[in-house]
């Protein structure tokens, strides 16, 4: 679109959230609130973007990694008109139209923004508002129209008369304004109202007093313009966003056994014919392949599963990759840096961190694999521990192909076991083992016949 600028208002504290962190950092679908609005606006390819920050400014800035926008500090939150005015230096010499969005209105769609700009340009308006007709308009600024049904001004809930409060047409808090009109108009806004704030919607009356055109576009789906002011509203929107995301994946051929307990963040993707059980969370940039099975109670963050992976009940996977045909769980924990080959089996109570396992390798019971590389077709017995930490530093272990590690073994890193090594049960391995060798600890096994009975008799004697 032709020369469009964007201003996102994100300086407010969000008092009604009762929170120590700024409202716009509360997450919806895993993404901070203000980033939703910002991303929608970015689809219009604006030439300049200003984000107005104040409360928790540093934290808000840290939540965005790009460098394609200007951060504008609004020291004191004197109102939405004042907030926009703070962006004036960013728009010096800019003569296009400026799209203004609220950081707390996350579901706004790029198409609606485009239509708003089209409407504005078609009408050659000074300012164009996004409006909606609501069943329950409480809390929103009301659109007051004159006898000819032309917009006359906007009155805030707190300033509205009882009669005005009955108006169901509301201001969505999203506007397009011509820059040459906007900044001079903002300087004329006063704070003579109940809240003693400089109201951005007052530019409507100012435009009309200058004989300029004020236009509006009504949104079809009121959800798009719903603002978040309280935790309850946030939870309600999260639910409805979740339903929308779930419907999208089901439409693309994913089975969700219980959509009401399936939480898929916006950045996650799922392949066809994958079946997902109850209480599954797919967070961040998690990628699930085709024909996978997730039995249930799974918490995945930035995880990558190839095709036909089976996650059995109750697993936590974070920043790891799992190749085709692997079976994980039940009760397994794959931590960052874990990379599992094809048909790997990770069983109950196994924890892996920075562990690379070759195709067909198995660790099925009660095992810790940390900072280790294991070749293919090896078997790690129950209760094996890679001792990767001596209290000061972490060390790496390397285990070859077709290695058999007997149950209850401890491998003290740094250590290398060659291919085809055989570790006998209950061995503590402290030194490297060459290919094909057996390693075991010499420990004499002793036996005392009748010992248990003698012990019992003795204990009975000591009983009072
Ligand atoms: C605002 C509108 C109201 C509209 C509603 C739609 C005003 C005066 N009222 O009310 O007509 O119906 O949005 O959601 O604009 N902010 C700043 N600096 C400030 C004040 C606010 O950056 O000094 C930011 C907030 O962080 C927020 C946004 O502006 O992201 C809107 O402010 P908020 O106080 O939530 O306005 P509403 O009362 O919802
Ligand atoms: Ca609001």
Compose a concise summary of this entry.
With 464 residues, the protein is α/β, with parallel strands linked by helices.
Backbone CA Rg: 31 Å
- What does the oligomeric state look like here? single chain
Average pLDDT figure: 96
Instruction: Report how far the terminal alpha carbons are from each other.
Output: 92 Å
Which band does the percent of strand residues land in?
25-35%
Please give a structural write-up.
This protein is α/β, with parallel strands linked by helices. It folds into two domains: 4-225, Spore Coat Polysaccharide Biosynthesis Protein SpsA, Chain A, CATH 3.90.550.10; 231-439, UDP N-Acetylglucosamine Acyltransferase, domain 1 (3 Solenoid), CATH 2.160.10.10. A hairpin with a 2-residue loop joins strand 2 and strand 3 (31-32). The structure holds uridine-diphosphate-N-acetylglucosamine and calcium ion. The site of uridine-diphosphate-N-acetylglucosamine has 28 residues, from strand 1, helix 3 and strand 10.
Structural features:
464 residues, alpha/beta, Spore Coat Polysaccharide Biosynthesis Protein SpsA, Chain A, UDP N-Acetylglucosamine Acyltransferase, domain 1, 2 domains, 23-stranded parallel β-sheet, 9 helices, 37 strands, 19% helix, elongated, binds uridine-diphosphate-N-acetylglucosamine, binds calcium ion
